[in-house]
Structure formats: structure tokens, C-alpha cells
Design goal:
12% of the residues lie in helices and 51% in strands. The chain is mainly beta and 410 residues long.
């Protein structure tokens, strides 16, 4: 009797275990819902080869209700269930094109492991447009201006890309007419050299929604010179001589100032005046015009485009006379040598104030040849001309050279 009861209890336990296994592990009638499974788009490469692209899709996820064995359902989740939409059958652009999806699960489960009780959404609807590429110019939008005393060289600004290649749906690409860079010059005292992002805009400068647009470059290098500006006075130096002093000269310049620019350091180091040349009165025999080149220090740019200036020189209060000197003095003849003057008379031209020149005679003029360091031979020497007491205000404009023969003493 006890033996029968034991067998009965064992049989009951085994039956309960089998039932529990079927209910918890096998349970062929089980169901489960899997939300937000990502949709994989296949065939996009083929779309691109046909010059097409997707611009919108009704949903990028799918919710599935699956039925099957409990043990099989336990092996799948939204991460290993694959939902694909095949785009390879699309050959032309269109809107709200219906595309079906296929579902698969890990390879360790048979294809018929589950029954798809529901799929939401059942179909996807996509918009497809032609994929086009075009080049658009880069435009700089200037904001503000450099402060007073500074110049921004907008006209000569440089970009490493002057156009941008844009690719995307035809409806969007057709709106894009330019890539706009903003450059803010407000309070800018130093040159700009920076990489800038740009905005794709229509012809009126309004931004275009370019989410679906790809470009060949993300940033563009912009270089703009910003320099300090300064007005510089053009001046000249006067070298007195030839009987003429500053009091005898009136000078009129064709340009008195020029505007220059450069770096702040270069401009600050530059004087407010620029000497363009020297007016050597000893070489100026009469009133006339001299031309001087405007030469600027390195790093300074001439904004006035004045590369040369003319100085009109007017002489006054002077008179000029020619004299012939019959006596020429020799000094500093080298030891053991003798000098024979070949030139017997010396012609000189003298200039000075009218009052002094009216009193000057040849006897007030002394011509001297200095033979220091002279060597044997016949050559020309430049004479030194001096004037007697009371004639310091006159000077020599011209004196002919003196020929002399140098030879050892006999």
C-alpha cells in the first residue's frame, strides 16, 4: 500500500515538472511585443548610382508582435531582430512611395520560429528625389568696420576656397545660390586669418535648410589685412652751397602729404615726415624742377599711389659771373717730386648775392691744387677755390680741372 502511494506521488511530481517546463520554456502559444526596432535601408547604393536619394521616410522604426515558443521568444530582442526595407526596386523619383519590410532573427533560430501577428507600420512611405551636385560661390558678408585710423583691405581678402560643391536633393540644391561667410570687423585692429564656417543661402541671402546637403569642405580659410593708417608729410633737405643759401630758395612740392598703412608696429615706428630727397644748391645752376622717388620703409604701403614728387625750385637774389684766374697755386708736392702746371689759366663760375658779386674781382679768388699723394705722370686735378675776406657769402658753381705733370726732380 505504501509502495503505491510513493509511486503516485512521484508520478504526480514528474507530471507537474513537465507541465511547468512546457508552460515556462516551450509554451507554443506565447506572444510578445518588440517596440522601436530600427529599420535598415538596403539598396541605397543602387539609388545613388541612379542619381536618386531619400528625402523623407514615414517611420524609421517598426513595432512587432510575435508568437511562438516561450524559449524562442526569450532569445530575441529589438537589438537582434532585423527589419529591412529594400530600395533596389526604385528607379524614378516620387513622393509617398510604398515600401514593404522583411523581418529576420538570429541565425540560431529557424525561419519559421515565429508568427508575425502584427507589424506596425505595415508599410513605409518614402519620398525620393534626384540627387544633384553644383558649385556655388563663396560670399563674404562684412559686419561693422575697422576703428578710426585703421584700414581693412576687403578688396584683397583671400579665401582658400572660392566656391563650394553642394550635393543633395534637387529641390533643395536648386535653392542654394551661395555660401556666406560672416566677417566681423568691429574694433578689429589686427589682420584676420581664421577658418570660418559658412551658411548656404538662396539668392536673397536667406539661409536654406541644408540638413540633407553634403559639401566638399566644412570650413573656409579667410585672410584679411587690417592695417593702421597714417598721413605723412613729404619734406626735403637743402644742402647749401655754390653761393646759395636757404634764403635764396623757394620750393613748391607737387604733393605735400601721402597716406600710408602698415602694421601697428611699423606705423608707430615711422616718423610723421618722410624725406624724399636733397636739394643740393651747389649743383643747381638755375631755377628748375627736380624729381624725387617716394621710397617707403619695408612693411609700409603707399595708399596715395604717389610714387614720385616734383620739387619746383625757384632761386632769387643771386647773380652768376665767370672769371679767369691767371695764377694757380701748388701745395703739398711729394718730396723728391716736382709739379709742372700745364693749365696756365683757370676758368671758374662764381655765384652769390648781387651786392657781393658786384664787388668781387679775380684778385679776390684763389685757386690751389693739392698734390698730396700724387704719383709721377700727367693727370688732372680738381682745384680748391677760396675767396678773400668779406666774400664768405659767395661760392663756386664750376671750376675747370687743372692739368699737371708730376716727375722726379732732376
Amino acid at each position: 500500500m505504501k509502495s503505491k502511494i510513493g509511486y503516485f506521488v512521484l508520478s504526480l511530481a514528474i507530471a507537474f515538472g513537465l507541465w511547468l517546463y512546457v508552460i515556462t520554456s516551450v509554451s507554443p502559444g506565447s506572444e510578445d511585443i518588440y517596440d522601436d526596432i530600427p529599420v535598415i535601408l538596403s539598396g541605397e547604393t543602387m539609388l545613388q548610382e541612379r542619381g536618386l536619394m531619400i528625402t523623407s521616410i514615414s517611420s524609421d522604426t517598426v513595432t512587432l508582435k510575435l508568437s511562438g515558443n516561450r524559449s524562442d521568444l526569450a532569445q530575441v530582442n529589438r537589438g537582434n531582430i532585423t527589419v529591412k526595407a529594400d530600395l533596389s526596386k526604385i528607379y524614378e523619383p516620387g513622393s509617398q512611395l510604398q515600401v514593404s519590410t522583411t523581418v529576420s532573427w538570429p541565425g540560431n533560430l529557424p525561419n519559421n520560429a515565429f508568427v508575425i501577428e502584427s507589424k506596425n507600420p505595415g508599410y513605409l512611405y518614402i519620398n525620393v528625389e534626384r540627387r544633384v551636385t553644383k558649385e556655388v560661390p563663396v560670399e563674404i558678408q562684412w559686419i561693422g568696420s575697422a576703428p578710426d585710423g585703421y584700414l581693412s583691405d576687403r578688396e584683397n581678402s583671400t579665401l582658400d576656397y572660392t566656391t563650394v560643391s553642394v550635393t543633395g536633393p534637387e529641390s533643395v540644391t536648386n535653392q542654394i545660390e551661395k555660401a556666406v561667410i560672416q566677417a566681423d570687423l568691429t574694433d578689429q585692429r589686427e589682420s584676420i586669418s581664421q577658418s570660418c564656417r559658412y551658411t548656404l543661402c538662396d539668392g536673397e541671402g536667406n539661409p536654406v535648410d541644408a540638413v540633407l546637403i553634403t559639401t566638399n569642405v566644412e570650413q573656409i580659410q579667410l585672410d584679411v589685412r587690417i592695417q593702421k593708417v597714417k598721413d605723412v608729410t613729404l619734406v626735403y633737405n637743402i644742402a647749401e652751397g655754390g653761393g646759395a643759401t636757404r634764403d635764396n630758395v623757394a620750393v613748391t612740392m607737387s604733393a605735400e602729404t601721402i597716406r600710408v598703412c602698415g602694421s601697428e608696429a611699423a606705423i608707430d615706428a615711422m616718423e610723421d615726415q618722410l624725406v624724399v630727397g636733397i636739394i643740393n644748391l651747389a649743383e643747381l645752376t638755375k631755377s628748375g624742377t627736380l624729381t624725387f622717388q617716394v621710397v617707403l620703409p619695408e612693411g609700409i604701403t603707399n595708399l596715395s599711389a604717389i610714387t614720385e614728387v616734383e620739387a619746383a625750385v625757384q632761386l632769387s637774389g643771386l647773380t652768376t659771373r665767370d672769371y679767369v684766374l691767371e695764377t694757380i697755386h701748388s701745395v703739398n708736392i711729394p718730396e723728391g717730386m716736382e709739379a709742372e702746371l700745364i693749365t696756365e689759366k683757370l676758368a671758374v663760375t662764381v655765384r652769390g648775392p648781387v651786392e657781393l658779386m658786384s664787388k668781387l674781382t679775380a684778385g679776390d679768388i684763389t685757386a690751389t691744387v693739392d698734390f698730396t699723394g700724387a704719383e709721377a705722370g700727367t693727370t688732372n686735378f680738381r682745384p680748391s677755390i677760396t675767396f678773400g675776406e668779406g666774400f664768405a657769402g659767395v661760392g663756386v658753381l664750376r671750376a675747370d680741372p687743372v692739368s699737371a705733370a708730376i716727375a722726379p726732380k732732376k
